[in-house]
Amino acid sequence: DGGITQSPKYLFRKEGQNVTLSCEQNLNHDAMYWYRQDPGQGLRLIYYSQIVNDFQKGDIAEGYSVSREKKESFPLTVTSAQKNPTAFYLCASSEGLAGFQETQYFGPGTRLLVL
Amino acid sequence: QKEVEQNSGPLSVPEGAIASLNCTYSDRVSQSFFWYRQYSGKSPELIMSIYSNGDKEDGRFTAQLNKASQYVSLLIRDSQPSDSATYLCAVNSGGYQKVTFGTGTKLQVIP
Asked: Under an 8 Å CB criterion, which residues of A touch B?
């Protein structure tokens, strides 16, 4: 079964703590993305990666970091610098053709809550 | 700033009726358009994509695109209670970072 997996489903963060959200895909997609979704707001791009060992900041990268050491994996770390981390985090991937018809597919999401 | 506008709803339709969801966008260079369905607490699921002016049909779903008016819509025929969800419009104006999502329209199909 091809798809995108995210773990954990729920994550609790204590004040001052860094936490890492996992995203894995077996679709052989080159491009991967992290979005944040808050109630009443559209999806906002945090980071994206076109190829292994390369990634770019999105619109709201402050307080987040990523790595792309393997094609299949694109973990997101929410650092203590992110003061309002409570949100639904969505990982997506696409073939990586970079054209207008690039279609993104989403994983099941991780809900991050602050204790 | 590139914007994608959707009426937040809720849009309530009776079971069996046609639901019409609308989306306008501000970036004239936008070339591809996507509709996602998102159930409460779940992630977005791609329903349809459309790239050319006109209609594109897939089962009970029809996407309509009018680039001159910067307008894209999704029609759902024979609406079912299982169609109750939030529908997100997404617009790609070129490449990886150029996908903008609307805030979504909540659809309620009343049995």
From this structure: 31, 33, 40-43, 45, 48, 50, 56, 58, 90, 98-109
